[in-house]
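Notes, p. 3: input format for complexes.
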Amino acid sequence: MVTAKRDETPAVDQLAELKLICMENLLEAPGVRVYFKDLDSRFLLVSKGCEATVPVGLSTKDLIGKTDFDFYSREHAEAAYRDEQDIIASGIAIENKLERETFRGRADAWVSTTKMPLRDAQGGVIGTFGITRDVTAQIKAERDLAYQVLHDSVTGLANRYCLMDRLTQALVAMERRSGHLAILFLDLDHFKEVNDTYGHDAGDLVLAEVARRLTTLSRRTDTVARLGGDEFVVLCASLSDEDDASLVAQRIVEGIRVPIERDGLEFAVTCSVGIIETSDPRADPEDLIRGADEAMYEAKASGRDRHRVYDPALHFASRANHLKIELDRALTNQELFLLYQPLFSLDDQALVGVEALVRWAHPELGVVAPDDFIPFAEQHGLIGAIDAYVLNEACRQLNEWTTREGWPSGFTMAVNVSGRELSNSGFAGLVSDALRRHDIAPLRLCLEISETEFIGGWAEIQETLESLTALGVRIALDDFGTGYSSLAHLQRMKIDTVKIDRSFVENIGRSDRDREIVAAVTAMSHALGMSVIGEGVETDHQLATLAGVDCDQGQGFLMARPMSADAVVALVG
Ligand code: C2E
Ligand code: MG
Ligand code: MG
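Output follows (573 residues plus C2E):
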């Protein structure tokens, strides 16, 4: 009798008996099918696990002497026979072959099979043996998962991920053929009302019906996708030059308009469709979807229940609209923040103040520079709120700093204001409120107005400038040299400081002419009682030249970049 205790290797003479016992166990094992076949692929021996494949009323014993042709579909039996004969001829195993087993009169199954040559004691091949596992459940789970990854669960349509994949493929395919593709972006009109009035089940029902109609209304080669909510996309990937996507869109708009009747209720929904077409294989998929989306918005804006074709001019307008909404949000969510760029006296290199520079911490784009949103905000009436925020925050910060022990005396805060704000009669009041609220001496605040802002005319802002001067705040003309102001005029307008634009400072090292201009501007400004700041100092040479022509202050990356309030504290030491 064989005894195989732990830590004890059986003696050699016991091995043969042990093998037999193992074999018997294997043949009795559930779940796995083990079978041995002769050279003609007839069953010699089969394990209990093979019961699963034996037709009802027969047992595994009935398999002996039979072949696959007696139980399986012809196709499957032929494939198995071919494999086995190959193994017999080559002596090489086939491992983990995934195949679909098709039985006669029974449901199909997915199996993973390994087959090997069956050898006698001398090593001669006397048949084959195989081990087969039913993997139907795993395959089904994998397929379900793949389906879920690519499809929307409410409608069964392709989802965004699947759509983007097909769109990318369609663009690639366009490299090899003529024609074009169209994207139809569809959004249901007032769908929220269906959900709110009849509940989400009714909403889902409507979505499913819309999905069904879209599938019927489009071609078999089109991809119909649901992006989420009540947004759908139809990708017409293989349009010929003559095909007109507008006709497809028209059909869809009319098809959706037909009321949906369910459970005695009638839902009347309409949709708005935006179309974008391209024949450029290098077009960016995301841009295309965005363009179609924008055209859809245009369809909504022009009355809904219709389609519109993408137009680049409209693209700009709707981008502007989008940015306006985002900026509004930035103001309410406090996404704006300030950095401070130090200004230094050129006499003794002492830190004399900072300029507040606004930034936008956009949730998706990261930190956005002012040049990317200030001009836009000015155009769309949002600059007032931004300037008010900056003014208030800069004054609050200035108060916090200057009440610290040892803070440099006479430290100033420069704040940029838009010309548009200066023509607003309430602006001086806003400034005086901020000064009072944060207990700031007016002299410490310097308002910078860009020279380009004055092109509109001084008359409009004269009143505000006078009120500001009366308050005691200082006024600097920013970016001097980019506009057309004469210095004498600036003096009459009570400008205290001229900030020479970076473009001049940049060139003073290279061009004698610019150096002369800077020298002349400085001398004249001084003669007229105005101080001068050089902006955008990046090199030692520029700094030395500015100091050499008697410029009062300098600001630039050479000395310090715009920095956080904490960094300013560290700099002051
Ligand atoms: P600005 O008032 O002329 O501000 C100076 C700009 O030059 C800042 O750019 C600053 O970072 C940059 N700069 C400073 N030194 C150097 C240098 O050495 N080299 C170079 N290449 N650049 C330097 P920033 O912060 O991007 O501001 C751009 C413009 O946006 C400002 O020009 C100003 O006109 C406007 N701006 C900034 N903050 C505000 C604000 O709060 N309100 C308004 N209305 N406009 C603002
Ligand atoms: Mg400035
Ligand atoms: Mg400037």
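Residues 18 and 69 are 35 Å apart (CA to CA).
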